[in-house]
Design brief:
two-stranded parallel ribbon; 2 strands; mainly alpha; 5 helices; DUF732 domain-containing protein; signal; 117 residues
């Protein structure tokens, strides 16, 4: 199984150009949001990671990393750069694993980014 040091991902992605959270036009729910929709999305995300064989030490941190991925994409970061950022901050990640993480994050938290324009 691949392990994801999520703190490095979250910090690395934030340092890779993410704007402050209060600059977003549509605020994203906090990873530990107690609303039913957030809990359902979080559970689906964690189950998808498990099914993909991607392990993590903290569900809160891995969910925050997924939101960071969506934040980068929402701000126009190209998908290949997001994958490169994931790999740079997680040397054990293969390109496939980084792409899988980004795809799971986008599918769960920002599916609007997956539609053709």
């Amino acid at each position: 199984m691949r392990s994801l040091p999520v703190l490095a991902v979250a910090v690395g992605l934030c340092l890779a150009g993410a704007a402050p959270g209060n600059a977003d036009p549509e605020p994203v729910a906090a990873p530990d949001a107690e609303d039913a929709g957030g809990a359902v999305h979080n559970a689906a995300f964690l189950e998808s990671l498990q099914a993909a064989g991607i392990t993590y030490s903290s569900s809160g941190q891995v969910i925050a990393a997924a939101h960071a991925v969506c934040g980068l994409v929402d701000r126009g970061e190209p998908g290949l750069q997001v994958i490169a950022d994931l790999k740079a901050n997680n040397p054990g990640f293969t390109t496939d694993a980084a792409a899988q993480f980004a795809a799971i994050a986008a599918n769960t938290y920002c599916p609007h980014q997956l539609t053709k324009k």
